[in-house]
């Protein structure tokens, strides 16, 4: 009886299915139903592809300076400076006016304040980048907040008003966007948190492309925890599977996006550290299983690794050809030594800029698979992991 009832229900569903040829009875009706609406971003599609290719260009990567004002304040406090707009501007000016930076850096992610700032001489920071053939980008999310119904997890807010903000950012000169959400392995992660992260990223990506901005898709799997690398791989595969499912559902143009994944590593508190070769093996396994080759660039985050560690791991991933441009989008792993060299003193600006070029060149070589850690100083080898890191 149960089987008969199930077959009856199945027949009813098939009869009422809008894609069934039984509805309307003609093949032309079926064809027109299937071809309902697949939005094509005709006005920006070519530009999106070109922008993504420009950022994912050989031997170059992204400088991430999109820290919120509060986080920028923490960085400045580490060298004894107050968190004022003048000091934030001075530091950003140091970074963005570094001569020759465009040889190693293809894109820079701004916080909103920076996108509208200029140098002390009145030149827009956006124009400083353009002169170096660096693409300006913008952080568009509004930060993490608690996710109700989850296991003490977070979700990323910022979709409200995103379309109008993105249109304004485009007018100001931004050509790509960045949205960071996080997944915590010690928290499960819960199915709810993974789905929320994936759906939010997909909606953001579609809205960004509609407004001419290449979306960087970043579900950061936090380093927090004592789990082995195999567990990280398992979670990363689940997360990226959901992300691409929802990207496709939202008709996102894969050739016009960039990814900013975490490297697949053991938890920061795991008893054994993994070698660069092991991290490369597990990370590339995950990417090959989950990321379509249509995606032009994989721009890794450093996630609290030391400057040298992040560079060594990237180098290991580029020892053989990949379907995508495998590169970097580092913040602390490019800036740590720079800040400590600068110390907020005008007379140290040139030395600090040289420090930035050293790190940028090292990661450029890693993108080409030609980096060696020989000669690196001890400061660059210091771990920068912060448990529960926010910015």
TrEMBL record:
Its EC number is 4.1.2.13. CDD domains: FBP_aldolase_I_a. Keywords: Chloroplast, Glycolysis, Lyase, Plastid, Schiff base. It holds the Pfam family Glycolytic. It catalyses: beta-D-fructose 1,6-bisphosphate = D-glyceraldehyde 3-phosphate + dihydroxyacetone phosphate. It is an enzyme of class 4 (lyase). GO terms for cellular component: chloroplast; cytosol. Pathway: Carbohydrate degradation; glycolysis; D-glyceraldehyde 3-phosphate and glycerone phosphate from D-glucose: step 4/4. Gene3D superfamilies: Aldolase class I. GO terms for molecular function: fructose-bisphosphate aldolase activity. The keyword Hydrolase does not apply. GO terms for biological process: fructose 1,6-bisphosphate metabolic process; glycolytic process. Belongs to the class I fructose-bisphosphate aldolase family. This is Fructose-bisphosphate aldolase.
